[in-house]
Amino acid sequence: METLLLPFSPRFIVLTICAVVTALLVAEVIFDPEWFDYLLIPILIFGGLSILGVRDILQKPHAVLRNYPISAHIRFLLEEIRPEMRQYFFESEKDGMPFSRDTRAVVYQRAKMQLDKRPFGTQEDVYREGYEWMHHSVSPKIAANEKFRVTIGGPECTKPYSASVFNISAMSFGALSANAVRALNAGARKGGFAHDTGEGGVSPYHRENGGDIIWEIGSGYFGCRNRDGSFNPELFAKVAGDDQIKMVELKVSQGAKPGHGGVLPAAKVSEEISKIRGVDMGEDCISPAKHREFSTPLEMIKFVGEMRRLSGGKPAGFKMCIGHPWEFLAICKAMLESGIYPDFIVVDGNEGGTGAAPLEFMDHLGMPMREGVNFVHNALVGINARDKIKIGASGKIANAFDMARAMAIGADFCNSARGFMFALGCIQSLSCHTDRCPTGVATQDPGRNRALVVPHKTERVYNYHHATVHALAELLAAAGLEHPSELRPMHFSQRMSTTEVCSFARLYPPLRPGELLDGTDDPRFRDAWAMARADTFQAAG
After folding, report:
1. How many Å apart are CA 174 and CA 432, to the nearest integer?
2. Could you tell me the fold of the domain covering 149-531?
3. pLDDT in tens, 184-225
4. C-alpha distances out from residue 221 to 109, 285, 539, Å
5. Where are the domains of the chain?
6. How far is Cα 473 from Cα 386, in angstroms, rounded to an integer?
7. What's the start-to-end Cα distance of the chain, in Å?
8. What is d(CA 166, CA 63) in angstroms, rounded to the nearest whole number?
């Protein structure tokens, strides 16, 4: 039976006041019955509010109400009048949020299995610069019932993985609460999709419900490190051998803060996090900006190959936000020279990342996801390696159009972090880094964590994935296609100005197979290819 946590906290101040006032009024009536007629209405009001507050704490679907009884109803009232208040509240992405109010609303509706249709046509300005759309067909198909999947595993992989085209992106335990991790993994198991651990290690909460896991290791090598912070291959092999872990992923950089690294202060390193990450209590938990196990493209590719060997032949790859073009092309040259190819590459964008980061890093460092995906796709085509390596897209993906657009320009599958956070109940309070998350998603506070009820949120995670993949099938059918692998740049267009429209086929021109090997005149690649060397990340010349 669940333990009810009711610590004295400002979160419960409204309920506390109502209960105290109710008790005082009732006591007054008991001691002096003549006041009954005067105090009856106040008793009913404050007593009713007290009962409502207790109900809020005991109910399970709404985490905000469990953490903020009575007062959180104001938020739901604003949601009810949202259409009338659109011009004042959260009108668009101008509100400074990572996703628009409409995008968040659709995720919530799908997670709760509510109607996600809207009346009165598009609410986008279709004539604004940058507006994008997908072309439909006058000969549409019947929407496929299959759960779109892609097989990940190149020639050197002995245990390929059939992955959903839509998976949970990297979010660590420590950044997320235990209940959030439990619900995500349970939803992944029910829906048959994968759950990326983030670089914080494989926690018991990832294992508890048996969902497919992608184990990500970063520069801190958490969960497979020696005490001095170096990589421990024996420990990695032991953890990676678990059948629940389907793929292993090296995090080279991420969208939120590429090249920055991170620190979990010693004060926040609990005994539990210390055990999971393999760091000592009383020490800062540091993710260095740079890996210590490799310093050249050749060493990096060999490290990925070693991860595959140590895991018993499972798909091994890496995740990065593209920075200097010659650095990724240097990795491509290292593949050619060593003959070692990753099984997958996840391309994060500078718009990606759910964690806290400096403003300058979030807004202005690293290549945006779509340009990164297309760059990686073309580079692999240019070295005749595209058929060996699958590409994942991770960066501000929340709905089926986001997925289709990324897959048209080179991605084989997509990962989402914030979309699944919304499914858990995240309201983008932007307090992730404060440990004061109002919904219990991004906190280690047990009082706030209890507000997230795992069975309820598991269903919402599953529903969101199921409805989004179904929406993708409907989009494909409307375009006359049957599978995401059929998507091409020609299926999308972008408005360049009020009077000019450009096809994605022109915005994202392809390289010919082997073009980098033969010598290219494409200005996107020519100079960077000449500057790239397999033995160094530094630009040549």
Report:
1. 11
2. TIM Barrel (3.20.20)
3. 999 999 999 999 999 989 999 999 999 999 999 999 999 999
4. 38, 11, 28
5. 1-83, 84-129, 149-531
6. 25
7. 68
8. 25
Contact 201, 245 (CB under 8 A): no
Query: Which amino acid belongs to residue 268?
Result: K
Question: Which of 338, 371, 372, 363 has the alpha carbon at shortest distance from 535?
Answer: 338
Residue 250 belongs to what H/E stretch?
strand 245-251
How far is the C-alpha of 316 from the C-alpha of 328, rounded, in Å? 17
d(CA 177, CA 441) in angstroms, rounded, equals 6
- Say if CB 498 and CB 365 are below 8 A apart: no
Among 313, 333, 317, residue whose Cα is nearest residue 325: 333
The encoded tokens of residue 179 equal 């209940």
The DSSP code for 60 is S
The answer to whether the CB of 469 falls within 8 A of the CB of 147 is yes
Place of tokens 């990572």: 98
CA distances, 92 to each of 143, 338, 354, 386 (Å): 31, 49, 20, 38
d(CA 477, CA 456): 32
As a dihedral over the C-alpha atoms of residue 438, residue 441, residue 443, residue 448, rounded to 10 degrees, the angle is 50
Q: Are 186 and 458 in contact (CB under 8 A)?
A: yes
The position carrying tokens 């019947």 is 142
**In the structure, what pLDDT confidence band is assigned to residue 394 with cuts at 50, 70 and 90?**
very high
Query: Is the model's pLDDT at 357 over the cut of 80?
Result: no
* Under 8 Å between Cβ of 80 and 441: no
Contact 254, 321 (CB under 8 A): yes
Determine contact, residues 444/269, Cβ cutoff 8 Å: no
Residues with Cβ within 8 Å of residue 217, at least 6 apart in sequence: 199, 223, 224, 236, 248, 249, 250, 251, 307
Q: Give the angle subtended at the CA of 152 by the CAs of 421 and 317, to the nearest 5°.
A: 75
The pTM of the full predicted model, rounded to 2 decimals, is 0.87
Write down the pLDDT at residue 91.
40
